Automatic annotation (TrEMBL):
Pfam families associated with the record: NB-ARC, WHD_ROQ1
Organism: Artemisia annua
UniProt-listed InterPro entries: Apaf_helical (IPR042197), Disease_R_plants (IPR044974), NB-ARC (IPR002182), P-loop_NTPase (IPR027417), WHD_ROQ1-like (IPR058192)
Name under which the protein is recorded: Toll/interleukin-1 receptor (TIR) domain-containing protein
Keywords, in A-Z order: Leucine-rich repeat, Receptor, Repeat
Residue ranges constituting the NB-ARC domain according to the UniProt record: 6-170
Disease resistance protein Roq1-like winged-helix domain: residues covered: 249-314
Lineage start: Eukaryota, Viridiplantae, Streptophyta, Embryophyta, Tracheophyta
GO molecular function, one term: ADP binding
Gene Ontology BP terms: defense response
Amino acid sequence: METRDKEINYWLEESDNEILAIWGMEGGGKTTLARHIAYSNWHKFDNVSILENIGSRSNEGLRHLQEKLISDIIEGKEKTNPSSWQNTYTIENALKRKKVLIVLDNIVTKKQLDALIGTGTITQSKIIITTTERGSSKWFKSPWRCQEYEMKLLDEGDSLKLLRLHAFEPNDPMEGYEELEKRALRYCEGNPLALEVWGSSLNCKSSDSSNSRKEFWESMMTSLERQVPGQIQSVLITSYNELQLNSVKELFLHIACFFNGEDKDYVEKILEPDYNAISGIVTLTNSCLLSVSPNNKLMMHRLLQEMGRTIVLAESPKRPGKRSRVWRNNESLDVLIKKNV
């Protein structure tokens, strides 16, 4: 935390880089960090604007965001325009004249940036973007200068603190839950959103005895492990939906169902003919949906793996043979031997 604060304060106070690109996995805390920076430093700027969840907005949606941005940084002194390019011109002129702090949350494409802040201008302003795109500094050309910041997942100590914050009331005893807490941490793998959802789900205010509360925890954990909660699924699936090629989406599902933890070269050899795996793995890695370990293994976060498998299960919840992929041993046996299709 101390190292992170030093890096961000240097960017705010001393760096010539106008842009800070915070990138990482969905649910990893990028938006929370960007908000924290804005709320902690608003007094250092003429105006502040936070545009959240930009995502896959339509052109009309982007125009509404332009209007909000203009209203925030110019305080209604200039009228918005019916055309997108005129609004972009207005924003660029404001950036030349004023020192403002802008947060652009969940940027997916360079086109969104060009519409909201233009293609580059000399300014005293600071602009923060959040994205799942690794290497997003390539979106910015001179005179823009961009500093990237990787939003890493929480370590075990911070994960435990966040889980307990949501799972226990202030005066609740925490002794005796160590093994159950470890089970939750193994599943969430440091993802803040998952830790918050799991913690809130485990907060059982109605259980009077310690034994009944532990039974509730065990039952709830089993339920959470069987199906990714909708609050988590809806966030994680955003990166999957934003993949532009169906072949890359199919590759992601294949890895989630069969190849997580397998050797990268082995997977490429098998899947290249049908799914263009060599380029597809690069795309998935750049989108924070996959990583490659130092020993060349494909590593997918457990939540992303479960999200992908949930997509496949939804194809036919009751009849495995109707799904595009079957990976559970008992269901594979039913399909292959018992002809349960």
